[in-house]
Specification:
Strand 28 and strand 29 form a beta hairpin. This protein has a 10-stranded antiparallel sheet, covered by helices on one side. The chain is an alpha+beta fold. The protein is about 30% helix and about 25% strand. Helix 6 packs across helix 19. It is globular and about 90 Å long. It has 3 domains: about 240 residues, Glycoside hydrolase, family 65, N-terminal domain (Beta-galactosidase, Chain A, domain 5, Distorted Sandwich), CATH 2.70.98.40; about 375 residues, Glycosyltransferase (Alpha/alpha barrel); about 60 residues, Maltose phosphorylase, domain 3.
């Protein structure tokens, strides 16, 4: 489908037909704004281009429609909105549109540069009658340093003629917007065309600047989209269309298009119009070349702190696949404390643009270990959801706080509670991320300002939700673990282990005096400790039950199913799946991947051998966890298979749905495989623990780690293992069981 060379993803297929999967792959963004890699003018393709521009956390709400409604069900759904696309540019040569009807393309190349942070689309077009031939190059970026700015540089080069008139028609594309294909049939869809009826031109801008005010009806949010060009032309502000005729005479001609996307969730929303104008003026004054230079400097710093180096003798693409994943995560993640990272990033409306537990378990470790300032902002965004989480728990009849399973604004947005609200491990997942952030940064200020409040309220919920069983101890009944093919069961092992970890972290890393000001009583503090110590886990020797009843159910022989029957959730009723030993994604195995120190080697081996044949891997989250545990078992065949499938999920369209957006959790899994599966990175409050291994088919790998503000690089090869202090003060490291200072 694509080629990969030297930090670059390349599509050069002819004849030109559009691929929605490639549009996802060639997305550019900065965590606030994302733009699908669609063609600037879809008429150069034989198929329709699926435009999509998204502001992280800009959404509309709609009522959820239930056939039968019960108390406590969510009442409204939030959905990210696809906004008008400012990359839309049409070109005409001597009055004929540059498209496949009036000519043909002999070259068509899209390239995504991971080092420069730009997407380039170039093609050679020859007009049918005159045979005039031109090379057109569009270079686009979404600025990391100017978060509201999308910029496009256009160059047209004549190849075989002396003189012609080039007409440029530049607009905001307000049709063919991405519509969510993962929408729940029980709820109303967002109709982009209906929403666009509310747009109105922005009048208070200079004559060469045009744009729209885009208000939502229910969520009461507003987006401002304004466009300006580096050259003067004829501007129709009502239709937001810019037209310019240019003489092209043997030399290339070029111009820039700048767009500012701004929403009223921003802090300076009161002066938003003047802010938009100022940002566009600054871009015109500095020029596209300066923006590209800023982009490259930003990414140079990012790669210096985050880049993985991988050398192996069976798949030369692993290194570039890992870089693609880390690049797209950087493009998708909110960095202002008010936005998270959606399951599809900023590449589509898939999953309505919601934030899930994917954020804390699969995605945050990359940022915690290399870009802790971004990890902190993600956790602050969760803190901003705490008031809604407190209300959510009260509505359900419990104390403390229960964070939403899927959300944008902090309110639960899932209409199917067995696979959402019942997945109460969401609290412990977030607290696990807080624990890891604290261990890697020693940020006590964050803990006292944000972290402890969330820890205490999440723990209160578990003490309220759980109960004491005379024969078992502390139990958590009627829950759903990560395996969504098993719902509403008792004592899911992953959930209980993660809650145990949360309670132990709170009560061992902090004292009662640290939390007394949060209204916590000594009796509650004692119950936290007791529940952690007496947490129940189902076991049969070294085999750990995924829950109390899982091991008693009949199995489904997955080898007898046809490929067309996957994913199972589309071909089997939930009740049928719930009654069998069949697993959608890593569940207990995920707990073993995250907390291997809680299990002995025999337990890892026995449970991997038991649960892997039962797992469909119908979720892209699954294989990374299995790869991590396989590496600990020295099972190279399983490790390599799981790793390669996890690394290439989107670049090979491994789940057959990349057209609906990128898989950000799977991308985070690439970092987890290296950091947890090979380098065995673990942090405590006082030490960085490293116990690296090197697979036989690997030559070497290098992984950067930031611990307590110091930047380190761990290099593992067949000859030796080295740790280098890149920046900061020396820190204590336990390497292969021996304590050293680096």
């Amino acid at each position: 489908m694509i080629e990969m060379h030297n930090w670059t993803i390349i599509d050069n297929q002819l004849p030109v037909t559009n691929s929605e999967a490639l549009e996802s792959i060639f997305t550019v963004g900065n965590g606030y704004l994302g733009v699908r890699g669609s063609y600037e003018d879809e008429t150069i393709s034989n198929t329709t281009t699926n435009h999509g521009v998204f502001i992280n956390g800009f959404y509309e709400t709609m009522p959820i429609s239930y056939g039968e409604q019960a108390y406590g069900y969510p009442q409204e759904r939030q959905s990210i909105i696809s906004l008008p696309d400012a990359t839309h540019i049409e070109l005409f040569l001597n009055g004929l549109q540059v498209n496949q009807q009036n000519g043909h393309l002999s070259e068509n190349i899209r390239q995504l540069s991971l080092k420069q942070g730009i997407m380039t689309h170039s093609f050679i077009w020859e007009e049918n009658l005159s045979k005039n031939k031109i090379k057109v190059t569009f270079t686009r970026l979404v600025s990391f340093t100017r978060k509201h700015i999308l910029a496009v540089h256009v160059e047209v080069k004549p190849l075989n003629f002396k003189k012609a008139i080039l007409t440029v028609k530049s607009t905001l594309a307000t049709n063919d917007l991405t519509i969510n294909k993962n929408s729940d049939p029980r709820v109303a869809n967002v109709d982009p065309a209906e929403l666009l009826k509310n747009t109105e031109p922005i009048k208070a801008l200079n004559p060469q600047t045009m744009g729209f005010i885009f208000p939502t009806k229910n969520s009461k949010l507003t987006a401002l989209i304004a466009i300006s060009h580096s050259i003067a032309g004829i501007v129709d502000k009502k239709t937001c269309t810019f037209t310019k005729e240019l003489l092209i005479d043997q030399k290339p001609i070029s111009f820039d298009k700048y767009a500012c996307y701004f929403d009223t969730r921003e802090d300076h929303k009161k002066s938003s119009l003047s802010t938009v104008e100022a940002e566009l003026n600054a871009c015109r004054n500095t020029g596209f070349e300066v923006l590209t230079h800023e982009q490259q400097l930003y990414l140079t710093d990012y790669w210096n702190k985050s880049d993985l180096h991988i050398a192996n003798n069976y798949n030369n693409n692993l290194e570039l696949e890992s870089r693609f994943a880390m690049f797209q995560l950087l493009q998708s993640v909110g960095k202002d404390g008010n936005r998270g990272i959606a399951a599809k990033g900023l590449s589509s409306t898939g999953y309505d643009g919601h934030y899930f537990w994917d954020t804390e378990i699969y995605i945050m470790p990359l940022f915690t270990m290399t870009q802790p300032q971004i990890a902190k902002k993600l956790l602050i965004n969760r803190f901003h959801q705490l008031s809604e989480a407190l209300q959510h728990a009260r509505q359900l009849g419990y104390k403390g706080a229960l964070f939403p399973w899927r959300t944008i604004n902090g309110k639960e947005s899932s209409a199917y509670f067995p696979a959402s609200t019942a997945a109460i491990h969401i609290n412990a997942d977030i607290m696990f991320a807080i624990q890891q952030y604290f261990y890697f940064t020693n940020d006590l200020q964050f803990m006292h300002q944000y972290g402890l409040k969330m820890l205490v309220e999440a723990s209160r919920f578990y003490l309220s939700y759980g109960n004491w069983d005379t024969n078992k101890g502390f139990v958590l009944n009627t829950v759903t673990g990560p395996d969504e093919y098993t719902a509403l069961i008792n004592n899911n092992a992953y959930t209980n282990l993660m809650v145990k970890n949360q309670l132990e972290f709170l009560t061992s890393s902090f004292t009662f005096n640290d939390v007394a000001n949060l209204g916590l009583t000594a009796a509650e503090w004692h119950k936290f400790k007791l529940a952690a110590a007496k947490m129940f886990i189902t076991t049969e020797g070294n085999l750990i039950g995924q829950d109390d009843s899982f091991l008693t159910k009949p199995k489904i022989d997955l080898t007898k199913l046809k490929k067309s029957q996957y994913p199972l959730l589309l071909h089997f009723h939930p009740l049928y799946l719930y009654q069998h030993q069949v697993i959608k994604q890593a569940d207990l195995i995920l707990a073993m991947a995250l907390m291997p120190y809680r299990f002995n080697l025999q337990q890892l081996q026995v449970n991997y051998n038991y649960y892997e044949p039962l797992t469909t891997h119908d979720s892209s989250l699954s294989r990374a966890a299995y790869a991590i545990v396989a590496s600990q078992l020295d099972d190279q065949t399983a490790f390599n298979q799981m790793l390669q499938r996890a690394f290439s999920t989107d670049l090979t369209d491994g789940q057959h749905n990349t057209n609906e957006g990128l898989h950000t959790a799977s991308m985070g899994g690439t970092w987890l495989v290296i950091s947890l599966g090979l380098a065995h990175v673990r942090a405590t409050q006082n030490n960085l623990l490293l116990d690296p291994i090197l697979p036989p088919q690997w030559e070497a790998y290098v992984i950067p780690i930031t611990y307590h503000g110091s930047q380190l690089k761990l290099s593992v090869s067949k000859r030796e293992t080295n740790i280098t202090l890149i920046a900061g003060k020396p820190v204590p490291v336990i390497l292969n069981g021996k304590k050293v200072i680096f």
